[in-house]
């Protein structure tokens, strides 16, 4: 991982800084939902930010992407190959990685795209629920020139209340491409279940869409 001093220097060159609400005292495991994700250039900012907080925040992708030179590059950047068997969806497969490791931080871009959206994918939430780990939100606030890591948020089981909190946390935050930033409309909560499912996924989630984690490298 890049030295913290070099990461701070690179961020200063770009007029950015990092705020860690945990002051370094992170839980040993966490899903790190990140937004707004509006540009491919978010990826190097993420690399710098994780170096500053000295937490090896990784991203997950299908195991088929970790072959040949591309696979070496993916692993070097912090990629984690996920093997999804016939009876195991992506959410469960990633949750199993959390169970197998003593320390693990997983970055997920919540929008699932760099375009403007009116709601987030829900895979990051169900992974946290399935793995029984908290979320540390990474807010890429280019309007205020800061990348901010929140204190841990533990899912309550009340899905709509949890997402209302998450949406409000990122509402109006200006991404690198300002016009693609997220604006919250509370009406989207009606599409979510009121309480968690036994299966650890919500309506509309699928192993190949909402259940998948998207990294800043995509």
Describe what this molecule looks like in 3D.
- The protein has 218 residues and is α/β, with parallel strands linked by helices.
- It has one domain.
- The chain has six helices and seven strands.
- The protein has helices at 4-13, 42-53, 68-77, 90-100, 123-131, 159-170, and strands at 17-20, 29-35, 57-62, 79-82, 104-109, 138-141, 146-149.
- It has a seven-stranded mixed β-sheet, sandwiched between helices.
- The protein is globular, with a radius of gyration of 16 Å.
- It starts with a helix and ends in a 48-residue tail after the last helix.
Distance between the termini: 20 Å
In N-to-C order, the SSE pattern is HEEHEHEHEHEEH
Helix proportion range? 25-40%
Distinct helical segment count: 6
Round the Cα radius of gyration to an integer and report it: 16 Å
Shape: globular
- Beta-strand portion reads 15-25%
Q: Average pLDDT across residues?
A: 85
The main β sheet shows up as:
7 strands, mixed
């Amino acid at each position: 991982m890049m030295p913290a001093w070099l990461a701070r220097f690179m961020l200063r060159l770009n007029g950015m800084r990092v705020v860690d609400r945990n002051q370094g005292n992170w839980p040993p495991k966490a899903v790190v939902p990140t937004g707004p994700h509006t540009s491919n250039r978010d990826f190097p900012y993420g690399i710098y930010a994780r170096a500053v907080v000295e937490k090896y925040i990784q991203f997950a992708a299908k195991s088929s992407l970790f072959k040949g030179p591309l696979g070496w590059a993916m692993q070097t950047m912090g990629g984690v190959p996920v093997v999804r068997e016939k009876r195991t969806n992506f959410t469960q497969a990633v949750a199993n990685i959390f169970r197998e490791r003593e320390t693990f931080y997983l970055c997920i871009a919540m929008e699932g795209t760099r375009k403007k959206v009116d709601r987030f994918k829900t895979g990051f939430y169900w992974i946290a629920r399935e793995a029984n780990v908290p979320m540390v939100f990474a807010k890429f606030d280019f309007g205020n020139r800061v990348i901010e890591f929140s204190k841990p948020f533990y899912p309550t089981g009340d899905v709509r209340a949890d997402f209302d909190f998450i949406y409000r946390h990122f509402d109006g935050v200006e991404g690198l491409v300002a016009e693609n930033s997220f604006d919250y409309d509370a009406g989207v909560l009606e599409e979510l279940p009121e309480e968690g499912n036994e299966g650890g996924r919500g309506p509309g989630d699928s192993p190949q869409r909402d259940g998948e984690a998207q990294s800043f490298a995509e």
